[in-house]
Structure formats: structure tokens, C-alpha cells
Design brief:
alpha+beta, Fructose-1,6-Bisphosphatase, Chain A, domain 1, D-Maltodextrin-Binding Protein, domain 2, seven-stranded mixed sheet, three-stranded parallel sheet, about 25% strand, globular, Inositol_monophosphatase_CS, Inositol_monophosphatase-like, inositol monophosphate 1-phosphatase activity
């Protein structure tokens, strides 16, 4: 059993590239052969017509679960599809073991439509603290990585989120209307003001990457699922960005956050987005 952050850091120093390789292998074996080739029987609904799951999701998560547990003995996996099958497994985020947080296909709707806007997300956390993350977009073969205190990178190049350009509308990706309540839609009205350009998000993981690159300015999200946010939040933070909940606190992957929350290129932008959302509510 890994029993200290120091030993996990040693693991990452030796095996981060192995994690990258396993993510690429999972995508090559289980995701890309099904992209634009899905049969009807390979696509199912979970909680409704907008909540889709495919054989690519299920099989890639199984592949990654086996590979990641073998790389780090004593760790556990919290994966989207496994939690759907057994919700109590989500509680591992609050346990003592190192946790791999896995979203095998983030942006399943885009994947089903044959669009390239999907990715595989993996993060490693311990004691509620994010230590490393991987965001892999297999359709474009882009890989973004981050480690706590060591920066964020895209295909080996350092990422810096920077600050929004003065005089330009703030570009904010928001929770999709298909997944928001009337109350949440009302809160989002706070972003419909001069100087802000809100739009519905696609893959959450790719929205976080866009912020880390400086190609988008912020998010406004209403859901907590760790597999959607963990990898991207560390990526944004290590690129110099910030994240903030409606209570003015950092987002916690273990849950219990005051929603909505934002991730942004800088702390000032995060505070501005939260203030606008509070006004909309």
C-alpha cells in the first residue's frame, strides 16, 4: 500500500510515461476502432436520451482499470462506468488509498456523432488532493499532462493560461442546457451581460484544455462528477489558472461543493464569473 505522497511522487517520476502509454493503448485498442464505426447495439442510454454510453466507454475503462492497478499496487479506480454500475464505489475518493479517476470517453455524444471532440481523462489523487493528470484527445493525437507543482504540458510544450485579453468578451463554456434545471438556467442568465460570451460546453476535458492553452477564458459548471473535472482542474491550475465555487472555495473532488463553480485562466476571472452567477441566481 502506498502510504505517503512522497512515495507517490517517486512512482510518478518513474512511471508517468507508462501511464501515458497505457492511455494511448486503451484508445488504440478500444476507442478509435469504434469511432465512426459504432453499430446500433454498441450504444445505450443510461439516465436518458442525452446520457449515452458505448462499448468504447465500457471496454476502455476496463482496459485502463486493469493497467493502472497493475502499475500502482494498492491503488483503486473510480471510473464513470463502474460507478454507474455500483454507485458506492465513488466513496473511494474519500478513502486512504491512491485513487485513479477515469473517464474513458469524455464527450460521448460527440463520439457517437462521429465528431473529434472527445477525450480520455485520467487523474491520480490521494487524500482528496490531485497529484497528476492526463488528457488525451485520440482523434487529434494530443496529450496534455500535469503534475502538482510541476506545471502543465501539451505534447511536451509548457502551457500557460495567461489572462483574458482586455476589451475582448469573456469566453465562458457553460453546462449544456440538456443537463441543467430551470433554476440552473436562471443562474446562467447572469452571464448574459456585456463583455461576456457564454456558450454550451462540449467535452469538459477539452474545455479545460482550452483554458490551459488560453483559447477559452472560463467555465460555469453545475455538476460534480470527479471523472469529468479532476484531470482538467489540475491542468488549468498548473497552467496558472484557478478554480472557485459559489462559496468562494476551491473545488473539492471529494464533493460537497457549493455549485455552480468555475475554472478560469486567472483568479480575477474566476471571481468575476462566480459573482455573475451569484447575481443570476
Amino acid at each position: 500500500m502506498i502510504d505517503s505522497t512522497e512515495t507517490i511522487e517517486e512512482f510518478l517520476a518513474q512511471h508517468a510515461s507508462d501511464v501515458e502509454e497505457e492511455i494511448r493503448r486503451a484508445a488504440a485498442a478500444e476507442i478509435m476502432p469504434r469511432w465512426r464505426r459504432l453499430a446500433a447495439h454498441e450504444v445505450d442510454q443510461k439516465a436518458g436520451p442525452h446520457d449515452l454510453v458505448t462499448d468504447a466507454d465500457r471496454k476502455a475503462e476496463l482496459y485502463l482499470t486493469e493497467a493502472l492497478l497493475a502499475l500502482l499496487p494498492g491503488s483503486v479506480v473510480v471510473g464513470e462506468e463502474a460507478v454507474h454500475a455500483n454507485p458506492v464505489s465513488y466513496e473511494a475518493l474519500r478513502g486512504d488509498a491512491p485513487v485513479w479517476i477515469v473517464d474513458p470517453v469524455d464527450g460521448t455524444r460527440q463520439f457517437v456523432r462521429g465528431e473529434p471532440g472527445f477525450c480520455t481523462l485520467v487523474a491520480l489523487a490521494h487524500g482528496g488532493t490531485l497529484l497528476a493528470s492526463w488528457t488525451y484527445a485520440p482523434a487529434s493525437d494530443r496529450l496534455a499532462t500535469a503534475q502538482q507543482g510541476k506545471g502543465a504540458y501539451l505534447d511536451g510544450e509548457r502551457l500557460f493560461a495567461g489572462v483574458p485579453e482586455p476589451g475582448r468578451d469573456l469566453r465562458v463554456a457553460t453546462s449544456d442546457p440538456d443537463y441543467t434545471t430551470d433554476e440552473q438556467k436562471h443562474a446562467l442568465l447572469g452571464l448574459r451581460t456585456d463583455g461576456v460570451a457564454p456558450r454550451s460546453c462540449g467535452s469538459a476535458g477539452l474545455e479545460y484544455l482550452a483554458i490551459a492553452q488560453g483559447n477559452s477564458d472560463a467555465t460555469a459548471f453545475f455538476w460534480e462528477a470527479a471523472w469529468d473535472h479532476a484531470a482538467g482542474l489540475l491542468l488549468v491550475e498548473e497552467a496558472g489558472g484557478a478554480h472557485l465555487t459559489l462559496a468562494g472555495e476551491r473545488f473539492r473532488i471529494t464533493g460537497g461543493n457549493a455549485l455552480p463553480f468555475t475554472a478560469a485562466r486567472d483568479a480575477a476571472t474566476a471571481r468575476r464569473v462566480v459573482a455573475l452567477l451569484a447575481g443570476g441566481a
